[in-house]
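Example record used in the benchmark description.
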Amino acid sequence: MNVTREWDEAAEAWAAFVRTGKDYYRDELNNPAMFDMLGSLSGRKILDAACGEGYNTRLMAKKGAVVTGVDSSEAMISLALQEEEKEPLGIEYVVADVCNLNVFKRRTFDIVTCFMALQDIELYIKAIQEIWRVLIVRGRFLAVIPHPCFEKRRINDKIIGGWEYPEGASHNESPHYYKVDHYFETCSYSIHWNMARLAQHFVTTAFHRTVTEYFDALNTAGFLVSRLKEPRPRHPIHPHLVLELRIPQSLIIEAVKL
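Model output (C-alpha coordinates):
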Protein backbone atom coordinates (compact mmCIF):
# COMPACT_ATOMS: atom_id res chain seq x y z
CA MET A 1 0.00 0.00 0.00
CA ASN A 2 1.41 3.36 -1.09
CA VAL A 3 -1.18 6.11 -0.68
CA THR A 4 1.01 8.74 -2.35
CA ARG A 5 1.51 6.57 -5.43
CA GLU A 6 -2.24 5.95 -5.62
CA TRP A 7 -2.93 9.69 -5.70
CA ASP A 8 -0.08 10.28 -8.17
CA GLU A 9 -1.77 7.86 -10.55
CA ALA A 10 -5.19 9.42 -9.94
CA ALA A 11 -4.05 13.06 -10.23
CA GLU A 12 -5.24 13.83 -13.77
CA ALA A 13 -8.64 12.19 -13.25
CA TRP A 14 -9.05 13.89 -9.88
CA ALA A 15 -8.19 17.34 -11.26
CA ALA A 16 -10.73 16.94 -14.06
CA PHE A 17 -13.32 15.84 -11.49
CA VAL A 18 -12.98 18.77 -9.12
CA ARG A 19 -12.29 21.46 -11.74
CA THR A 20 -15.43 20.74 -13.76
CA GLY A 21 -17.94 21.12 -10.92
CA LYS A 22 -18.49 17.38 -10.41
CA ASP A 23 -17.36 17.24 -6.78
CA TYR A 24 -20.82 17.99 -5.43
CA TYR A 25 -20.00 17.14 -1.84
CA ARG A 26 -17.17 19.68 -1.83
CA ASP A 27 -18.92 22.50 -3.67
CA GLU A 28 -22.44 22.16 -2.28
CA LEU A 29 -21.91 20.72 1.21
CA ASN A 30 -18.46 20.82 2.78
CA ASN A 31 -16.79 23.94 1.41
CA PRO A 32 -19.67 26.28 2.31
CA ALA A 33 -19.62 24.98 5.89
CA MET A 34 -15.83 25.09 6.17
CA PHE A 35 -15.52 28.63 4.83
CA ASP A 36 -18.25 29.78 7.20
CA MET A 37 -16.15 28.44 10.08
CA LEU A 38 -12.95 30.00 8.72
CA GLY A 39 -14.44 33.49 8.57
CA SER A 40 -12.41 36.37 7.14
CA LEU A 41 -9.14 35.19 5.58
CA SER A 42 -7.71 38.53 4.50
CA GLY A 43 -4.00 38.65 5.31
CA ARG A 44 -4.03 35.30 7.12
CA LYS A 45 -1.08 32.97 6.62
CA ILE A 46 -2.59 29.58 5.80
CA LEU A 47 -1.12 26.16 5.18
CA ASP A 48 -3.36 23.93 3.09
CA ALA A 49 -2.15 20.51 4.23
CA ALA A 50 -2.57 17.69 1.71
CA CYS A 51 -3.79 20.29 -0.77
CA GLY A 52 -4.06 17.97 -3.77
CA GLU A 53 -4.27 19.84 -7.05
CA GLY A 54 -4.96 23.08 -5.19
CA TYR A 55 -8.69 23.68 -5.63
CA ASN A 56 -9.29 24.93 -2.08
CA THR A 57 -5.84 26.52 -1.94
CA ARG A 58 -6.85 28.79 -4.80
CA LEU A 59 -10.19 29.64 -3.19
CA MET A 60 -8.45 30.76 0.01
CA ALA A 61 -5.94 32.86 -1.93
CA LYS A 62 -8.80 34.56 -3.77
CA LYS A 63 -10.29 35.43 -0.39
CA GLY A 64 -7.15 37.37 0.51
CA ALA A 65 -5.09 34.78 2.37
CA VAL A 66 -1.37 34.21 1.96
CA VAL A 67 -1.46 30.50 1.19
CA THR A 68 1.03 27.66 1.02
CA GLY A 69 -0.07 24.28 -0.29
CA VAL A 70 1.70 21.07 0.62
CA ASP A 71 1.12 17.55 -0.63
CA SER A 72 3.17 14.36 -0.83
CA SER A 73 2.01 13.73 -4.41
CA GLU A 74 4.37 15.28 -6.94
CA ALA A 75 1.75 14.81 -9.65
CA MET A 76 -0.82 16.79 -7.68
CA ILE A 77 1.62 19.61 -6.93
CA SER A 78 2.61 19.72 -10.59
CA LEU A 79 -1.03 20.26 -11.55
CA ALA A 80 -1.39 22.93 -8.88
CA LEU A 81 1.70 24.75 -10.17
CA GLN A 82 0.29 24.71 -13.69
CA GLU A 83 -2.81 26.53 -12.43
CA GLU A 84 -0.67 29.02 -10.52
CA GLU A 85 1.24 29.75 -13.72
CA LYS A 86 -2.01 30.31 -15.63
CA GLU A 87 -3.55 32.48 -12.90
CA PRO A 88 -0.91 33.76 -10.46
CA LEU A 89 -2.35 34.10 -6.95
CA GLY A 90 0.91 34.20 -5.00
CA ILE A 91 0.54 30.61 -3.77
CA GLU A 92 3.63 28.64 -2.80
CA TYR A 93 3.41 24.90 -3.39
CA VAL A 94 5.70 22.37 -1.72
CA VAL A 95 6.05 18.61 -2.19
CA ALA A 96 6.21 17.29 1.37
CA ASP A 97 4.59 14.76 3.65
CA VAL A 98 2.23 16.32 6.21
CA CYS A 99 3.89 14.01 8.75
CA ASN A 100 7.19 15.84 8.21
CA LEU A 101 6.85 19.59 7.74
CA ASN A 102 10.46 20.44 8.56
CA VAL A 103 10.57 22.72 5.52
CA PHE A 104 8.58 25.16 7.70
CA LYS A 105 9.70 26.82 10.91
CA ARG A 106 7.77 26.61 14.15
CA ARG A 107 4.86 29.00 14.54
CA THR A 108 4.71 29.98 10.86
CA PHE A 109 0.98 29.84 10.07
CA ASP A 110 -2.19 31.40 11.49
CA ILE A 111 -4.40 28.62 10.16
CA VAL A 112 -3.89 25.10 8.84
CA THR A 113 -6.63 23.43 6.81
CA CYS A 114 -6.83 19.78 5.83
CA PHE A 115 -9.78 19.09 3.55
CA MET A 116 -10.89 15.47 3.20
CA ALA A 117 -7.34 14.18 3.59
CA LEU A 118 -6.62 13.39 7.25
CA GLN A 119 -8.40 10.06 6.79
CA ASP A 120 -5.91 9.23 4.01
CA ILE A 121 -2.85 9.74 6.22
CA GLU A 122 -1.74 6.56 7.95
CA LEU A 123 0.43 8.34 10.55
CA TYR A 124 -2.28 10.84 11.40
CA ILE A 125 -1.03 11.38 14.96
CA LYS A 126 2.35 12.52 13.63
CA ALA A 127 0.61 14.75 11.08
CA ILE A 128 -1.42 16.43 13.83
CA GLN A 129 1.74 16.98 15.87
CA GLU A 130 3.46 18.60 12.88
CA ILE A 131 0.46 20.81 12.24
CA TRP A 132 0.56 21.92 15.89
CA ARG A 133 4.27 22.75 15.53
CA VAL A 134 3.87 25.03 12.49
CA LEU A 135 0.87 26.92 13.92
CA ILE A 136 1.20 30.10 15.93
CA VAL A 137 -0.08 30.05 19.51
CA ARG A 138 -3.88 30.34 19.34
CA GLY A 139 -3.67 29.35 15.68
CA ARG A 140 -6.51 27.28 14.28
CA PHE A 141 -6.58 23.87 12.62
CA LEU A 142 -9.65 22.95 10.56
CA ALA A 143 -9.99 19.36 9.38
CA VAL A 144 -12.83 18.12 7.19
CA ILE A 145 -13.17 14.33 7.28
CA PRO A 146 -15.77 11.74 6.30
CA HIS A 147 -18.01 11.34 9.34
CA PRO A 148 -16.43 8.39 11.20
CA CYS A 149 -19.83 7.18 12.41
CA PHE A 150 -21.18 6.79 8.89
CA GLU A 151 -18.23 5.77 6.74
CA LYS A 152 -19.06 3.22 4.08
CA ARG A 153 -16.08 0.86 3.88
CA ARG A 154 -14.99 -1.86 1.50
CA ILE A 155 -12.87 -4.48 3.28
CA ASN A 156 -11.90 -7.70 1.47
CA ASP A 157 -14.62 -6.95 -1.10
CA LYS A 158 -17.25 -6.78 1.64
CA ILE A 159 -19.22 -3.54 2.02
CA ILE A 160 -19.60 -2.37 5.62
CA GLY A 161 -22.22 0.28 6.23
CA GLY A 162 -24.37 2.16 3.77
CA TRP A 163 -28.00 2.69 2.86
CA GLU A 164 -30.31 -0.31 3.07
CA TYR A 165 -33.09 -0.50 0.46
CA PRO A 166 -36.27 -2.58 0.38
CA GLU A 167 -35.73 -5.97 -1.25
CA GLY A 168 -36.01 -5.66 -5.01
CA ALA A 169 -36.07 -1.87 -4.91
CA SER A 170 -33.92 0.25 -7.19
CA HIS A 171 -31.55 2.87 -5.81
CA ASN A 172 -33.89 5.51 -7.22
CA GLU A 173 -36.27 4.67 -4.39
CA SER A 174 -35.92 6.00 -0.86
CA PRO A 175 -33.83 3.72 1.38
CA HIS A 176 -35.24 2.33 4.63
CA TYR A 177 -32.27 3.23 6.83
CA TYR A 178 -28.50 3.59 7.01
CA LYS A 179 -26.62 0.61 8.39
CA VAL A 180 -23.76 1.27 10.84
CA ASP A 181 -21.57 -1.63 11.93
CA HIS A 182 -18.06 -2.42 13.22
CA TYR A 183 -17.54 1.22 14.17
CA PHE A 184 -14.84 0.49 16.76
CA GLU A 185 -12.77 -1.66 14.38
CA THR A 186 -10.17 0.77 13.09
CA CYS A 187 -8.64 -0.31 9.79
CA SER A 188 -7.54 0.68 6.32
CA TYR A 189 -9.97 0.24 3.46
CA SER A 190 -10.18 0.77 -0.28
CA ILE A 191 -12.23 3.51 -1.91
CA HIS A 192 -13.33 2.65 -5.44
CA TRP A 193 -13.79 5.92 -7.31
CA ASN A 194 -16.01 4.53 -10.05
CA MET A 195 -18.80 7.10 -10.31
CA ALA A 196 -20.14 7.77 -13.78
CA ARG A 197 -19.11 11.42 -13.55
CA LEU A 198 -15.44 10.46 -13.32
CA ALA A 199 -13.64 10.28 -16.67
CA GLN A 200 -11.24 7.67 -15.30
CA HIS A 201 -11.84 5.31 -12.39
CA PHE A 202 -9.25 4.66 -9.69
CA VAL A 203 -8.77 3.19 -6.22
CA THR A 204 -7.28 4.85 -3.14
CA THR A 205 -6.72 3.83 0.48
CA ALA A 206 -8.28 5.47 3.53
CA PHE A 207 -8.20 4.74 7.26
CA HIS A 208 -11.27 4.40 9.44
CA ARG A 209 -10.84 5.76 12.97
CA THR A 210 -13.27 6.65 15.72
CA VAL A 211 -14.15 10.19 16.70
CA THR A 212 -12.48 9.50 20.04
CA GLU A 213 -9.19 8.61 18.34
CA TYR A 214 -9.15 11.89 16.43
CA PHE A 215 -9.99 13.83 19.61
CA ASP A 216 -7.34 12.04 21.63
CA ALA A 217 -4.70 12.78 18.98
CA LEU A 218 -5.61 16.46 18.96
CA ASN A 219 -5.66 16.69 22.75
CA THR A 220 -2.33 14.92 23.14
CA ALA A 221 -0.70 17.21 20.58
CA GLY A 222 -1.78 20.29 22.55
CA PHE A 223 -4.97 21.34 20.78
CA LEU A 224 -8.27 22.36 22.29
CA VAL A 225 -11.20 21.29 20.12
CA SER A 226 -13.23 24.47 19.88
CA ARG A 227 -16.02 23.69 17.41
CA LEU A 228 -17.63 20.83 15.52
CA LYS A 229 -19.92 20.98 12.53
CA GLU A 230 -21.85 18.30 10.67
CA PRO A 231 -22.65 20.03 7.36
CA ARG A 232 -26.18 19.87 5.97
CA PRO A 233 -27.18 20.62 2.37
CA ARG A 234 -28.30 24.15 1.70
CA HIS A 235 -31.27 25.23 -0.41
CA PRO A 236 -31.69 24.72 -3.25
CA ILE A 237 -30.59 21.16 -2.46
CA HIS A 238 -28.47 19.44 -5.08
CA PRO A 239 -30.22 16.22 -6.25
CA HIS A 240 -27.18 14.15 -5.26
CA LEU A 241 -27.32 15.42 -1.67
CA VAL A 242 -30.93 14.69 -0.69
CA LEU A 243 -29.96 11.78 1.56
CA GLU A 244 -27.49 14.04 3.42
CA LEU A 245 -30.59 15.62 4.99
CA ARG A 246 -31.01 12.33 6.90
CA ILE A 247 -27.47 11.60 8.09
CA PRO A 248 -24.24 13.65 7.93
CA GLN A 249 -21.69 12.79 5.26
CA SER A 250 -18.85 14.66 6.96
CA LEU A 251 -17.50 16.17 10.14
CA ILE A 252 -15.59 19.44 10.47
CA ILE A 253 -13.31 19.78 13.47
CA GLU A 254 -11.85 23.09 14.54
CA ALA A 255 -9.02 22.93 17.07
CA VAL A 256 -6.99 25.75 18.61
CA LYS A 257 -3.30 25.48 19.52
CA LEU A 258 -2.82 26.12 23.21
